[in-house]
Structures are given as C-alpha cells and as structure tokens.
Amino acid sequence: MRYPAPILCLAVSPDETHIAAGMTDGTLSVRRRQPKASEADGESSLAKTILQSGTYDSFLGGSLPTIGEGRVKGKGKAKPLGDVNELRVESRRTKRLKNYDKYLKSFKYSAALDAVLKKPVLRLLVKYVSDPRFGEMVCDVAKVVIEMYTPILGQSPVIDNLFVRLRKKVAAEIRFQKELIRTKGALDMILASAASVSTVR
C-alpha cells in the first residue's frame, strides 16, 4: 500500500474495512477494503456492539444508532458517561495570593498584619475623624498611623488617596471649628450686652 506523501496520522475502522491516512501535504486518503465472505456474516452483529473505549463516541458515553433504527429521546438531559477505565483530568487555576498571604508565606507576620489592617484603619479614620463621639480616640489613632507610615508614603496609590482624604477631612473640620468659635464669641457678646442692659434697668 503506497501513499504519495509521508503519513502523519492513520486510523482504521472497527470492522477493518476502511483505512484513513493524513499526509504531510494536507491530503486525506480514505481507502475501502472488500470484506471476505467469512467476515460478511459478522458485520450485522459487529454494528450493534458497544463502541470500544478510546473512540470519540465512547468518550461521549454513548454508541451510534445503526441506520434505520429509531431512537427515543428522554425528557431529561442525559449526562455523558465515559468508560469505567477512563480518567478525567480537571484543569485547576492557581489562585492569586493576597498580599498578606505572600507575607505569611515568607514569615513576615508584622508586614502581613500591616497589609490586612492598613487600608481598613485608614478608611475608619476618614469616616469618623469628624464625629464628636469618637473625636479624641480617632485623633490619637490617626497620629500614631501618620507617624508610622509617613516614611513609606508614595508606594501605594490607594493608601496615598486615603491619606489625602483624611487630610481634607481634618482641614474641613478645623474650618468648621473656627466658625463655631466665631459664632460662640458673637453670641457671648450679644448675651453679655443683653444681661448688662437688664441689670441697669
């Protein structure tokens, strides 16, 4: 059996009557062999046998219906069942580690704690720095945080943005407090003058 070009792949049908060959020049050759008389008797029984493992239809878990035979389709969606000896390899995507996980793997526990708490603490400070209920405590914590992280500012845009927001919030609170002091001074003058007028009378 000769072919015009080198063969890349070769396949034989289950009944050994057809042979397909793919060649390097892109040609697909399918040749048919006439079965012998002894083999013709076994064709009908061979067509109804279960497909051997390793073929495409066996991989899908079913067998092809023979020509002329009907097939009843069930209501439910049938799950493909492979061969018992087949193994299915699942692809697993590696999860991207968080910054604190990387620090923990390197046994840098202090850096891991900083990575976990740095952003939430700053957001908490920005949220409650102008709240009179927590003003004194938040100012103390903000002072410590600023002293700790001033040398490393500029390394994270998110952290830098939170520090800028904290600064703006504190500046707005200082302006508000100054306005309150002016208003309080004006009210004190009005009340003092009203009290002096009532005493004179």
UniProtKB/TrEMBL annotation:
Subcellular location: Nucleus
GO biological process entries: positive regulation of transcription by RNA polymerase I; rRNA processing
Gene Ontology cellular-component terms listed: nucleolus
Pfam families tied to this protein: UTP15_C
UniProt KW Hydrolase keyword: no
InterPro entries per UniProt: U3_snoRNA-assocProt_15_C
Record's keyword annotation contains Transferase: no
Name listed for the protein in its UniProt record: U3 small nucleolar RNA-associated protein 15
Organism whose genome encodes this protein: Paramarasmius palmivorus
Protein encoded by which gene: utp15
